[in-house]
Amino acid sequence: EAGVAQSPRYKIIEKRQSVAFWCNPISGHATLYWYQQILGQGPKLLIQFQNNGVVDDSQLPKDRFSAERLKGVDSTLKIQPAKLEDSAVYLCASSQYSGGPTGELFFGEGSRLTVL
Amino acid sequence: AQRVTQPEKLLSVFKGAPVELKCNYSYSGSPELFWYVQYSRQRLQLLLRHISRESIKGFTADLNKGETSFHLKKPFAQEEDSAMYYCALDEYGNKLVFGAGTILRVKS
Questions:
Q1: With contacts defined as CB-CB under 8 Å, which chain A residues touch B32?
Q2: Residue B60, pLDDT above cutoff 80
Q3: Residue B51 has what pLDDT?
Q4: Confidence of residue B100 (pLDDT cuts 50, 70, 90)
Q5: pLDDT given for residue A67 in this prediction
Q6: Distance of alpha carbon A69 from alpha carbon A66, whole angstroms
Q7: What is the pLDDT of residue A100?
Q8: Which of A14, A83, B3, B41 has the fewest other C-beta atoms within 10 Å?
Q9: Residues A101, B32: C-beta atoms closer than 8 Å
Q10: Which residues of B33-46 are buried (b: 16+ CB within 10 A; e: fewer)?
Q11: Does B46 contact A104 at a Cβ distance shorter than 8 Å?
Q12: Which residues of B touch A95 (CB under 8 A)?
C-alpha cells in the first residue's frame, strides 16, 4: 500500500514569511497527526484529526499555525508568519485508530523547514 | 504532565555485544508504551509495543511499573541495528508522546 505522502520535502523561507505543508494519509486511515520535530528532540504533537474533526490541538501555536483536513482526507499545515524557532521537520502521520489503542502510527518522510 | 525520558543521546556498542536502550516514563494511569525506530534515510516506524509482549528483530522490552521503565534490549547487536530509537507513551486515544531519542551505533 502507498505510504503517507508529504510535500514539499524541503523549504527555506525568511522570518515573517508564510509556508504551507501538505499531507496525504494512507487510504482509509481515520486519524491524521502533525508533529513538529526540532533538531535533537523527539516529535511533538501539534494537532490530531479524527476524520475532519480536531481531536487535540492543545500544543498548536494558534497565533501563527493553522491546520485543516478537508473532507477527512488530505491535510494542510500553515505557518504565518514564520519565526526562527519554527525551523524543524514537520511530520505527518496517520493511523487506523477508531476507538481502541493500537499505537501504530504511519509516518511520512517529513517536510524540513528552515527559517532564516 | 506525562513525560518520556531517554537519558542517553548516543549509545555505541560493538557488534555482538548486548544492547540496552533506556526509557523512563511518568504517567498517572496504566501506560501504553512503544518503541519506534528510524533507520538512516527511512521513515519513523513502529518497532514494538509492550502490550503485544513480542520480540521484533531480536529486540524485547519489558514494562516495569515499579521503576516506571520500558527499556529496550537485545542480547547481540548487529550492524543493521544502527538507528535512532524513540520511546513513546500513548496518553489516550492514540496520542503519542515521544522521548528525545537515542542514537544506537553498532561498530564492527
A1: 101, 103
A2: yes
A3: 79
A4: very high
A5: 97
A6: 11
A7: 55
A8: B41
A9: yes
A10: bbbbbbeeeebbeb
A11: yes
A12: 94
φ, ψ of residue B5 to 5 degrees: the values are -120, 125
Q: List, for residues A7-66, the tens digit of each pLDDT value.
A: 999 999 999 999 999 999 999 898 999 999 999 999 999 999 998 899 999 999 999 999
Which of A1, A9, A105 is best to mutate for the B interface (most B CBs within 10 A)?
A: A105
Most B CBs within 10 Å, among A34, A46, A50, A104, to test the B interface: A104
CATH class, A5-115 region? mainly beta
Query: Cβ contact (<8 Å) for A108 and B43?
Result: yes
A-chain residues within 8 Å CB-CB of B99? 42
Return left, alpha or beta for B58; rule: phi > 0 is left, psi -120 to 50 is alpha, else beta: left
CA of B55 vs chain A CAs: smallest distance (Å): 16
pLDDT surpasses 80 at B25: yes
Residues of A in Cβ contact (< 8 Å) with B6: 42
Domain boundaries, chain B: 3-107
Inter-residue contact A47 to A34 (CB < 8 Å): yes
Question: Are B43 and A107 within 8 A, CB to CB?
Answer: yes
Report how far residue A64's alpha carbon sits from residue B100's, in angstroms, rounded to the nearest whole number. Answer: 25
If one counts every other C-beta atom within 10 angstroms of the C-beta of residue B101, the result is 25
Domain residue extents for chain A: 5-115
Query: What pLDDT was estimated at residue B30?
Result: 79
Per-residue pLDDT reduced to its tens digit, A72-112: 899 999 999 999 999 999 999 999 866 555 668 999 999 99
